[in-house]
Design goal:
The structure holds two protein chains of two kinds. By secondary structure, chain A is mainly α. Chain A is about 65% helix and about 0% strand. In chain A, helix 1 packs across helix 3 and helix 2 (about 30-50) crosses helix 3. Chain B is mainly α. The chains are: A mainly alpha, B mainly alpha. Chains A and B meet through helix 1, helix 2, helix 3, helix 4 and helix 5 of A and helix 1, helix 2, helix 3, helix 6 and helix 10 of B.
Chain lengths: ~170, ~210
Amino acid sequence: MLRTDPQAAFEAALGEHRRIVFKVASIYARTPEDLRDLAQEIILQLWRAFASFDARRGKLSTWMYRIALNVAISHARRPSWAAADRIDPIEDDHPALIGEPAAGAPDERLRELYAVIEQLPPLDRALILLYLEERSHAEIGEVLGLSETNVATKLGRLKHAMRAQIAARGG
Amino acid sequence: MDLEEMKQAWAALDARVDALESCDRLARSRARLGWTSAGDVVQLAGTIALTAWVAGFWIHHRTDPHVLVAGLALHIYGIAAACLLTARLVLVAHAYYTDPVLVLQHRLAVLRRFRIRASLALGLPWWVLWVPCTMIAASALWGLDLYAASPRWVWGSLAVGLVGLVGSVWIARRLGGRPISTPWLARMVDDLAGRSVIRAGREVDEVVAFRRD
């Protein structure tokens, strides 16, 4: 436990790592409303599990990535009848965190990045998110439950596939 | 755009995230705290209590063959239901969001497949089971032997139940793939048509393949 008051400790931890929650939610959510719901669900599960977090056994960020990704992947796997918005086709430029971009602005690249990520299966999305977050192979392995070697191999393949996809999109 | 540019674009997302509303507010806005498996526990307790009562009932009526058969049918169903519900609770109890992603996603996919199969195994027999259930209720509440009063009603109801059971599966398979806007109906059709089990099975395979490759 980080502090004596669990709620204060949780709020402090969340304040420090809030980007994890929203970035994970952003690659699995399909609409801004979905993003909000998913972020809430992640925060709820983080709070529920917070009492079990032991700083001596690992980093807070690793623990948060695990929970956030587990919640988000489970959310993404829900069949269409479990979430009304799932009936709609995937929006081309979903990125819920992106506003209306000016031409050539970073938003345009983000939009393109999301479009590539959106084509990936849920587990590959988790891997590429951790890569984009510049996590070490060891930490990625810890979050996903893979060996470092396996992470390196999979990342190599995934990056190759993404390069090909970007090229195919004319990037 | 190359992968380095992707990383830069991703890093630019931080500013967007920081501009979003406070996490504290989001966390407090959701008061849906509680034990998600509470429903399963209540169902299990009810099943065990009912099975125990049915056991006492058929033992007491063991000299009436048709009441005995009706009681035994419900008793066997009750034991099977209690076993399935217990297995489901055990699977749920071993699923933690704090587990590594592949470990939990595999458990959840197995659990999902098990849940669907268990729901079908527990739900479909009720097309027929309502008959012995009614027989026992009539006997327990009013001392009425429905089979003695009208064996044709009992056999006819069982036949209708069997037709309903086969028919519901057939209709679900016919409807499979068509968009259904009512969530509970869509779920039922998916389960009956076997599409939910196939989907859950694919998820299990996907996690296994991701871990192995």
